């Protein structure tokens, strides 16, 4: 089973095959083995997955997952540790999410991707608590308003030195897959920049 929490520009029940923006946290697995999959769609079909073995079982207690998305970068956090950074490198031809998005949470099955589901273990549930959003109300007439430095998240242009060290540790010790490791990574110019 896959439990996903995502920001997406798709309309509810929209065709996931169309070009769109999306930022995903996906939890894959069961039987005590869980992988955290992250993915980014930037006016395209995505395929920017990075996967991590977490140092904890996400089903035994609540944890904090956070996304910082501003004009400089997208940072994925697990328990306040940065686990993924996607920089805005549009000046190098890299697509970057810029569309207004909404939040969705789903539980779904993809046997081709994560294997067969033992339906006898159902029902399958995901629990959330202390959910909050700090965001900009997108204005069609003035989308640049969301880049205003009056919003604290727009003042965060880089990770702190402590965050950089934690991020490097996660990449070395917990990252098990990155789309930049695939043969088609030349289709993603950001792979050559990082």
Summary keywords:
194 residues; three-stranded antiparallel sheet; globular
Give a short synopsis of this structure.
By secondary structure, the protein is mostly beta strands.
Oligomer: single chain
Q: Supply the number of structural domains.
A: 1
Largest sheet: 6 strands, antiparallel
- Residues in helices, as a percent range: 10-25%
Tell me which CATH architecture applies here.
Sandwich
Number of helices: 3
Strand content: 25-35%
* Terminal-residue CA separation: 32 Å
Please name the CATH topology. Jelly Rolls
Name the poorly predicted regions. none
Give structural notes.
- By secondary structure, the protein is mainly β.
- The chain has one domain: Jelly Rolls, CATH 2.60.120.200.
- It is built from 3 helices and 9 strands.
- A hairpin with a 2-residue loop joins strand 6 (73-78) and strand 7.
Question: What's the topology here?
Answer:
Layout: E1 2-8, E2 20-30, E3 33-44, E4 50-53, E5 65-69, E6 73-78, E7 81-87, E8 102-108, H1 111-114, H2 161-173, E9 175-178, H3 190-193
Antiparallel strand pairs: 1-2, 1-8, 2-3, 3-4, 4-9, 5-6, 6-7
GO molecular function, one term: hydrolase activity, hydrolyzing O-glycosyl compounds
Keywords: Glycosidase, Hydrolase
Protein name: Xyloglucan endotransglucosylase/hydrolase protein 2
């Amino acid at each position: 089973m896959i439990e996903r929490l995502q920001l997406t520009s798709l309309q509810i029940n929209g065709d996931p095959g169309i070009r769109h923006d999306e930022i995903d946290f996906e939890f894959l697995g069961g039987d005590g083995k869980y992988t955290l999959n992250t993915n980014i769609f930037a006016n395209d079909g995505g395929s920017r997955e990075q996967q991590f073995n977490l140092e904890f079982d996400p089903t035994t207690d609540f944890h904090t997952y956070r996304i910082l998305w501003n004009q400089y970068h997208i940072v994925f956090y697990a328990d306040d540790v940065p686990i993924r950074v996607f920089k805005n490198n549009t000046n190098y031809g890299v697509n970057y999410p810029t569309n207004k998005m909404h939040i969705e949470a789903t539980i779904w099955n993809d046997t081709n991707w994560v294997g067969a589901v033992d339906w006898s273990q159902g029902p399958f549930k995901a629990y959330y608590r202390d959910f909050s959003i700090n965001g900009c109300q997108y204005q069609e007439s003035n989308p640049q308003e969301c880049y205003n430095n009056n919003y604290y998240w727009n003042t965060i242009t880089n990770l702190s030195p402590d965050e950089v060290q934690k991020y490097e540790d996660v990449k070395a010790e917990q990252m098990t897959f990155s789309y930049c490791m695939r043969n088609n990574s030349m289709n993603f110019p950001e792979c050559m920049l990082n």
